[in-house]
Amino acid sequence: MDKALDVDAYAARWETAHPRDILAEVAGWGGHWTLAMSFQREDTVILHWATMVGLSFDVFWLDTDLLFSETYAFYETVQSRYPVLWRRIRPALSLTDQAAQYGEALWQRDPHSCCFRRKVEPLFEALAGYDGWITGIRREQSPTRAQAPIISWDDRHGLYKLNPLATWTTGQVQAVTEDEGIPVHPLHSQGYPSLGCAPCTRPTRPGESLRAGRWEGWDKFECGIHQ
Ligand code: SF4
Questions:
Q1: What is the CATH number of the domain that holds 11?
Q2: pLDDT tens across 126-140, in order?
Q3: Which of 109, 172, 176, 223 has the fewest CB within 10 Å, making it most exposed?
Q4: Structural domain count of the chain
Q5: In angstroms, rounded to a whole number, what is the distance separating the alpha carbons of residues 203 and 173?
């Protein structure tokens, strides 16, 4: 696949394009793509459309060993409905080994270090050898994502990064799941607009931002996999 695409030109042209059409155009490029699955509404929408348009892709999920029990159950639901290749990426350290080296419940004392070991480092394994990765991040989700382009070159991992829903609102994504019967993680309807690890995620209160329930009490807004 061409490694010298003019991503800025594509990003500008796709500002007003439908995400499904973006995925269809990318499918025409060939190459081997991988979808980052955090089991949120955005990810299952992309999974649904990527399957429809014939994109050559697989799915990976970063299993930190600390996801909600509902997330592990939801994985079983979606992987049986979408029979693409699913890759479960694990951290180098088990929770027991992490506790032995860095102390118990590292996420309570140093979530930056915990995320680095359980998400950021494993992402390198997840993306090695691919032409591009696809994520569900949207500009509306947080100030840290407000400038996210629809496509860019990911220097850190050496592949394209596609954010086909970058311009979409929560309402648009929600409507698509209802209109097209796409599976939705059960915790979304229980006050969790954003889903992460169980120890670091709480439901949001009325008026709070979409990611306010993540890492409460810490000056931390991202796990580190999105730069
Ligand atoms: S979200 Fe919390 S538990 Fe999960 S890897 Fe980051 S700090 Fe650790």
A1: 3.40.50.620
A2: 999 999 999 999 999
A3: 109
A4: 1
A5: 19
Round to whole Å and give the CA distance between 108 and 135: 27
Res 224: pLDDT = 87
Distance from Cα 114 to the centre of ligand 1, integer Å = 5
Instruction: Identify whether 211 is part of a domain.
Output: no
Pair of tokens at residue 32 = 């081997």
Cβ(213) to ligand 1 under 6 A?
no
pLDDT in tens, 22-49: 999 999 999 999 999 999 999 999 999 9
Q: Which of 127, 184, 223, 225 is catalytic?
A: 223
Domain around 94? 7-200
Examine the residue annotation and report whether 31 is marked as an active-site residue of this protein.
no
Is residue 34 in some structural domain?
A: yes
Rounded CA separation 200/107 (Å): 8
Q: Is the CB of 19 under 6 A from ligand 1?
A: no
